Amino acid sequence: MYLSSMLFLCLLAGVSLVSFLIMTFKDFSYFVEWEIVSFNSCSLVMTLVMDWKSMLFLSFVSLISGMVLFYSGGYMAGDLNMDRFMYLVLGFVFSMGILIVSPNLVSILLGWDGLGLVSYVLVIYYQNEKSANAGMLTALSNRIGDVAILISIGLMFDMGGWSFIFYNDTSKISDIGGLVILVTLAAMTKSAQIPFSAWLPAAMAAPTPVSALVHSSTLVTAGVYLLIRFGPSLGGVSKFILLLLASLTMFMAGLGANFETDLKKIIALSTLSQLGVMMVILSMGFYNLAFFHLLAHALFKALLFMCAGSVTHHAGGSQDIRMMGGLIYIMPLSITSMNLGNLALCGTPFLAGFYSKDLIIEIFFSSFMNEFCFWLLALATGLTVCYTFRLIYYTVSGDYNLASLGCASDSDYIMTWPMICLGAGSIVGGAFLSWLIFPSPYMVCLPLGLKLLALGVSLLGGFVGYVLNLMTESYQLSSLKNYKLLNFVGSMWFMPFLSTYSSSYMFLTTGQKYHQAGDAGWLEFYGAQGAYSGFMVCSKYLQLAQDNSVKVYMVMFLVWLIFITGSLI
Amino acid sequence: MSYLQTEIISHARKVCSLYKRSLRNLESWYDRRPMLRYRAVLLRARFDENKDVKDLRVAQQLLDEGEKELFSLIHYQPKKFTYSPGGVAYEREVAPPDWVLDYWHPMEKAAYPEYFARREQRKKEYIEWWEKTYGKPTEPSH
Amino acid sequence: MLVLKPHHGLFLITLLAGLLIAVSSSSWFILWMGLELNLMSFIPLLSSSENRYPAESALKYFLIQALGSSSLLMASTLSLFMSKAWTSIVLLSLLLKTGAAPFHFWLPPVMQGIDWFQCFILMTIQKIAPISMMSLILTNLSSLTLISSSILSATVGALGGLNQTLTRKILAYSSINHMGWMLAAISVNEQMWAIYFMAYSLITLSVVSIFSSKQIFHINQVLTTNIYPQTTKMMLFLSLLSLGGVPPLLGFFPKMMMIQEFMSSQLSLLWLSILLASALLTLFFYLRVANSSLMLSSLKTKYSLQTNLSNFILSSSLLNMSPALYPLLLLISY
C-alpha cells in the first residue's frame, strides 16, 4: 500500500509540476466553476482554481506526502493499524488538496475542517493518555479557527458570493467589518501563532511520519496559505497585530527550542519559528516571498522529521536528546541528512533555506517597521542557528549515550531513500524555486552593517549554541542560576498551561457555579419544584370545588346564566 | 495516592527516596555521563556527610531542607524512560492480556472451536504441571 | 372487555340518529328534539342492573343534560324578543352539555361510574352535536364567553388532572382540556374543529381500547402488574404521548395546525400560550401513568395468561404513528 500510494502521489506531483511550468511560462490559469445553487442573488459555487501558485504547492504537497507515505512503510512496519494509518494520511493529503485549489471560502472550509478532523484522528493514533490530551488540545485550538471561518462565511453573504479571490483587487473585503480580522484569526490558529501555539508541540504525540507531513507542507501551512490567498485584502490593524504576534512567536519558539529536550519538539518549535517568519513577511505585504519560504521550508522540514523519526525508531522510541550522542558513527546517513536539513534551516549559503530566508531578512531590514520587531527578528535568526548547533552537538559529538542494548543503523532502505530524495531537494530546492518564482531577482540595497547583521547574528548564534552545551566537570550549570527564567522559557512561556488548565479551570468552575446556583439551586426551587407544588395547590382547590353535589353544579350553572344574560340585556 | 500515607515510613526510607529522586534529577540536568558521575559523587558526599547524625530532630531538619532544595531545582522536563509512566511511548502499544479471551461470549468462542479446545486443554495441562511441581494448594487458614 | 347486550345495538342506533337530526336540523326545535333523542338513548346505554354506580352516573348525566336542554329550549323561544341575550344562553347551555369549564363539574363523577366503552362515547360522540351547534351561533358577543370558557377549560383540565390517580378521571380531565382546544378551533374556522376532533377521537380510541381490554381503572394497575406483554405497555405509552401532543405522533399535528391558524388569523397570543402551557401540564400526568411502568419497573414474565392485544387495538394504537406516512401523500398528489 505504501508503494502504490507513493507512486500515485509522485505521479500527481509530476503532473502538477509540469502544469505549473506551462502556466508560468505561458502565463495563464484555469478556473473550473460549478454553480450548485443560486439563492437570493447569492451564488454558491464550487470553484477550483489552477494557477501557478496552487499547482506548485500541490506538486510539493504530493511529492512530500508521497515520500512520507513511502517512509511510513518502514517506520510503521508491523503496526496493527497500518491500513487505517495509510488511509488517514491519504485523507489528509486530499483535504489539503481541496484547500489548495479552492479560492472559495465555503470550499476552503471543507478542506479546512477535513484537515482539523484528520489531524485529530492522527494525533490520537497511539491510544495513550498523552496522545488523547494532545489530540484534544489540537482539535479544540483549531476549532477556534473553524468558527472564525464560519463567521466569515456568514459575513461574506453580503458580497453575493464566497469566491474572495475575485474581490481581492477591490476594497470590498476590507469594507466588511471584522472579516479580515476573523480570517487572520483562523490563519493564526491553524499556523499556531502566539495565543494558540500550545497545540503544535503537543501534536508531536502523533507518529513521526504524520509530524513530517503535518509540520512541513500541510496542516500548519494552511493558515499561511489562506493569508497568501487573501493577501491584497489584508490591511490595517490586523496586519499590525499579525506582525507583532508573529515576531513574538518566532522569538518565543526559537528561544524555547534551545531549552527543549525532546527531539521532535525541538523540530516542532523550529517549525513554529519558521511559521513566524512567514507570517512576519506576509504582514509586511510580501505574499510571494512568504509562499517561497513556505515551499522551501516544506522540503527541509519534512527531511528533518524523517531523520528524527529514523533516530527515534532505532533508539527504541526514545526522543530525548539527552540520551543521544555520537550517533553519526552508527547511523551516518540519517544524521548527515538531518544536519543537512538543519543547515538548510538556518540558512547556510546555497542550501534551500538560504535563498528564501536571506531574502526575507534583508527585505525586512529594508522595510518600514518598528524597532521592537526588528530586534526580535534579528535575535530569532540567531536563535535558529543556536538551536541548530545544539542539535548538531547532541547528534554528532560526544559518546554513545543510548541504551546499552540497541541496534541503531541505517539499514532500512525504505526509510533512507525518501531522506536522500528530500535531501537532494533541500540542496537544490531553494535555487530552483527562486529561479522559477521570481523571473527577475530582488535587489535589496542596505548599508553594510545591516547587510552583515544577519551573517553576524548567525555566526554568533552558532558559536553560542555549540559552546554553551560543552560542559566540563568543574562547571555548575549556569542555567540553574536563573531557574525561574529557565522554567518560563523552557515551557513555551507557560502557554500549554494557559491554554489547557486555565481554560478548563475557568469553564469548569463557572459551570459548577451555574449548576449550584441554577440547576441545583434557584431554578430547581422556583422552577421545577416550585411550579410542581404551585400547580398541586391549585389542583387541590379544584378538587375542593369538585367535591359537591349535582344540585350545587346546577345552581352554579343557573347563577352564571342569570349573570351573563343579565349583563347583556 | 502519594498524598495519603497508609503506613509508617521510616526515616531511612525517606532519606533513600530523597537521594534517588535527587540522583534522577541530576540525570536530567547533566546529560553527559562524566559530568553526571562527577555531580553524583558530590551529591553522595553531601548525603554521606550527615549519615551519622543520631539526633532525629536534626536529621528531620536536614531532610526537610533537602526536600526543599530538590523542589527548587527540579527539572522542567524530567528525563523519563520511554515506556515508563510519563514517557513518550507509555501505553503506546496496547497488548490485551491473555485472560480477556476467557471472557469471550460462548457464541464468539464458537467461531474458533479448535483454538479454544486447545486452550482449555493447555489450561488443564498447566494445572496438572503446577500440582505436580508444587503440590496441591492448601486451604488458607483464616 | 367490551360487553355488548342486545339493547345496546338499538340504543346506539337511536343515539346516532339523534345526533344526525341535531346536526342537520334547520330549526331550533328540531335540534332540541334530536338532542333529546340522543340523551334518552344514551341513558339506557349507561345504566345496568347489576351495578349501582352506572345508575348513579346515568341519573347525574340525565339531570345535567335535562337542565341544558331546557335552557336551550327556553333560549330558542326567547330569541323572538331578546335578540342579544339569547345566543349567550344557548352558548352556555351547550357548554354545559359538552362539559366545558366552568360547567365541567359533572363530567369526572359521571365518567367515574361507567364502563370504558360508555366513557368513549361520552368523550367523543356526545360532543359532536353541541360543538357543531356552537359553531353555528358564534357571534362577536358570544365569542368573549367562548374565549373565557376555552381558557378555563384548558386550565382546569390541566390542573385538575394533576392530582388524579384514577384513569377514568384522568381521561375526563384530559377531555376537558381538549375541549378548550376545540373551543378555540371553533373560533378559528369551521373545518379546524372537525380535524381536531377527529384526531382527538382516534387517539382517545386507542387509549381507551387498551384501558378497556386490560380493565385498567387505577394507575397502580399499570404500575404494579407486570404481567402485560411489552407491546401493551409500548402501545399505551405511544398513545398517551400522542394524546399529549408529542411531535412525531398524530396528536401533535392538530395542535400544530392550531398554532399556525392562530398566527395567521391574528388571534390573541395569550390565549394560545395558555393552551400550550396547559398541554404541557397534561403531558405531565399522561407520562406519570406510563412512565414508571415502562421505565422504572419494566419487568417481563416469560409466561403470561394475558393474551396479546387484539388486532383492532394494535391498529388503533399504531394510527398514532400515521404521520410517518404523510410524506406519501405527496406521491399521491403528484
UniProtKB/TrEMBL annotation, chain A:
Catalytic EC class: translocase
Function: Core subunit of the mitochondrial membrane respiratory chain NADH dehydrogenase (Complex I) that is believed to belong to the minimal assembly required for catalysis. Complex I functions in the transfer of electrons from NADH to the respiratory chain. The immediate electron acceptor for the enzyme is believed to be ubiquinone. Core subunit of the mitochondrial membrane respiratory chain NADH dehydrogenase (Complex I) which catalyzes electron transfer from NADH through the respiratory chain, using ubiquinone as an electron acceptor. Essential for the catalytic activity and assembly of complex I.
GO biological process: ATP synthesis coupled electron transport; electron transport coupled proton transport
Membrane topology: Multi-pass membrane protein
Record's GO cellular component terms: mitochondrial inner membrane
Recorded catalytic activity of this chain's protein: a ubiquinone + NADH + 5 H(+)(in) = a ubiquinol + NAD(+) + 4 H(+)(out)
Boundaries of every NADH dehydrogenase subunit 5 C-terminal domain copy: 387-565
Domain (NADH-Ubiquinone oxidoreductase (complex I) chain 5 N-terminal): residue spans on this chain: 38-86
Native source species: Halocaridina rubra
Keywords, comma-separated and alphabetical: Electron transport, Membrane, Mitochondrion, Mitochondrion inner membrane, NAD, Respiratory chain, Translocase, Transmembrane, Transmembrane helix, Transport, Ubiquinone
Record's protein name: NADH-ubiquinone oxidoreductase chain 5
Single annotated GO MF: NADH dehydrogenase activity
Matching InterPro entries: NADH_DH_su5_C (IPR010934), ND/Mrp_TM (IPR001750), NU5C-like (IPR003945), Proton_antipo_N (IPR001516)
The organism's taxonomic lineage, starting at the top: Eukaryota, Metazoa, Ecdysozoa, Arthropoda, Crustacea
TM segment ranges: 7-25, 56-78, 84-101, 147-167, 179-200, 212-228, 240-259, 265-287, 294-315, 327-351, 372-394, 414-438, 450-468, 488-508, 550-568
Family: Belongs to the complex I subunit 5 family.
PANTHER family: NADH-UBIQUINONE OXIDOREDUCTASE CHAIN 5
Domain NADH:quinone oxidoreductase/Mrp antiporter transmembrane intervals: 102-373
From TrEMBL, chain B:
GO annotation (BP), single: mitochondrial electron transport, NADH to ubiquinone
Tagged with keyword Transcription regulation: no
Keyword Secreted found: no
Pfam name, any one: Complex1_LYR
Major localisation: mitochondrion
Cellular component GO terms held in the UniProt record: mitochondrial inner membrane
Signal peptide segment: none
Ranges for domain Complex 1 LYR protein: 13-70
Membrane topology: Peripheral membrane protein
Subcellular location: Mitochondrion inner membrane
Alphabetical list of InterPro entries matching this protein: Complex1_LYR_dom (IPR008011), Complex1_LYR_NDUFB9_LYRM3 (IPR045292), NDUFB9 (IPR033034)
Keywords on record: Acetylation, Electron transport, Membrane, Mitochondrion, Mitochondrion inner membrane, Phosphoprotein, Respiratory chain, Transport
Family of the protein in this entry: Belongs to the complex I LYR family.
Described purpose of this protein according to its UniProt entry: Accessory subunit of the mitochondrial membrane respiratory chain NADH dehydrogenase (Complex I), that is believed to be not involved in catalysis. Complex I functions in the transfer of electrons from NADH to the respiratory chain. The immediate electron acceptor for the enzyme is believed to be ubiquinone.
Assembly: Mammalian complex I is composed of 45 different subunits.
Protein name, UniProt field: NADH dehydrogenase [ubiquinone] 1 beta subcomplex subunit 9
Lineage: Eukaryota, Metazoa, Ecdysozoa, Arthropoda, Crustacea
TrEMBL record, chain C:
Pfam families membership: Proton_antipo_M
The keyword Mitochondrion belongs to this UniProt entry's keyword annotation: yes
GO CC terms: mitochondrial inner membrane
Topology versus the membrane: Multi-pass membrane protein
InterPro entries linked: Complex_I_Subunit_2, NADH_UbQ_OxRdtase_chain2, ND/Mrp_TM
One Gene Ontology term from the biological process aspect of the record: mitochondrial electron transport, NADH to ubiquinone
A GO molecular function held by the record: NADH dehydrogenase (ubiquinone) activity
Catalytic activity: a ubiquinone + NADH + 5 H(+)(in) = a ubiquinol + NAD(+) + 4 H(+)(out)
Compartment(s) of residence: Mitochondrion inner membrane
Transmembrane segments: 12-37, 58-82, 144-163, 194-213, 234-253, 268-287, 308-332
Source domain of life: Eukaryota
Predominant cellular place of this UniProt entry's protein: mitochondrion
Domain NADH:quinone oxidoreductase/Mrp antiporter transmembrane as annotated: residue spans: 25-278
Keyword Transmembrane: yes
Enzyme class (EC, first level): translocase
Listed EC numbers: 7.1.1.2
PANTHER family on file: NADH-UBIQUINONE OXIDOREDUCTASE CHAIN 2
Protein role: Core subunit of the mitochondrial membrane respiratory chain NADH dehydrogenase (Complex I) that is believed to belong to the minimal assembly required for catalysis. Complex I functions in the transfer of electrons from NADH to the respiratory chain. The immediate electron acceptor for the enzyme is believed to be ubiquinone. Core subunit of the mitochondrial membrane respiratory chain NADH dehydrogenase (Complex I) which catalyzes electron transfer from NADH through the respiratory chain, using ubiquinone as an electron acceptor. Essential for the catalytic activity and assembly of complex I.
Family: Belongs to the complex I subunit 2 family.
Protein name: NADH-ubiquinone oxidoreductase chain 2
Organism: Halocaridina rubra (Hawaiian red shrimp)
Taxonomic lineage from the root: Eukaryota, Metazoa, Ecdysozoa, Arthropoda, Crustacea
Name of the coding gene: ND2
